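pinned: reference chain
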Amino acid sequence: MTSDLLICGSGPAGRALAHRALAQGQAVTVVDPHPERRWSATYAAWADELPDWLPHHTLATSTDHPIAWTTRRIELDRRYVVFDTATLQDSLELHGARIIRDRVAEISIPTRFGTQGNDLPSVRLESGPTLPAGRVVDARGVPRSPALAEQTAFGVMVDRKLWPESDILFMDWRPDNGANPAEPPSFLYAVPLNDDTVLLEETCLAGRPALDTTVLRARLEHRLRSRGIALTGTEQIERVRFPVHGGRPSPRTFGAAGALMHPATGYSLATSLRLADTVAAGDSIWPASARSVHFLRMAGLRALLALPPHEVPAFFDAFFTLPATSQRAYLSGRDDLPGTTTAMAALFAALPWRLRRPLLGAVAIPRKS
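pinned: its structure tokens
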């Protein structure tokens, strides 16, 4: 049997795509070496990015006004949600799909225009067989490489009663983590996972190379001690490391592999969920405006990497004081070219003069990535 759609990878992006293709009545094959593996990462999103079809019970917590600490406390006017990871995975059920436990060795595209006869896209499995399909989409993410900037984090899950602050911290750049100002910066991310547990995570937003999780662990412990929280060493931990760019816009890729990750934040899940129906139907998600926004976002990542470490809080101070519409445009408007350019221009104008020169240099001369 030849499937309508063959998806390589069953992580959040691949599973969401398969789930929505099944809902459209397509014959779907999913190839993954561990399709039954339970997801363990913490996923979050801006609530206004989520598709209507996503069940509400997949959300564990929500916050109407998360806080960013830059050089001061800033209240963000946007609802922020944290997923119940297990419930999210289960809600993207794959009943009716053909699941193959194997690795993809090679993806082949048709050698002539059209998909008639044997001239179909196909996947060769490591075990030997070749599987043709009407369409093949690669959703296996982006492999790590020294050439790619990465996001890293180290977090602990603690009793919510131990967290003395009422604020939900989207970003906390306060300098109480023991880091030298000349070292690459990191921030505290503090969000409730449920009524009883809060995740406290020290995060390197983007680095090439990024901070190692052992460094982030030491910084987190120092920061928490300074706030009166002593860890016991028995807490459940979370380690994070992934490239924040590297995927290519293409009809044959999806999720991080398909350049849907925001290179300046590391967020991709909500975008993948929102676009899963469109990609499942075979429609394009890369008009010229989206490709232009992607180019501008990559310029934004280069600018972020070029900042002197001690100036990063001032950069985000300027960003989070932009109008809410401009913040949304830059963070979520993947095909909103006017909104993205307006936001970037306003941010540049709001920055101190001392920061404009390194940003101009980074944006004007793109490095190979």
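why pinned: The first strand starts at residue 3 and ends at 8. The chain is about 30% helix and 25% strand.
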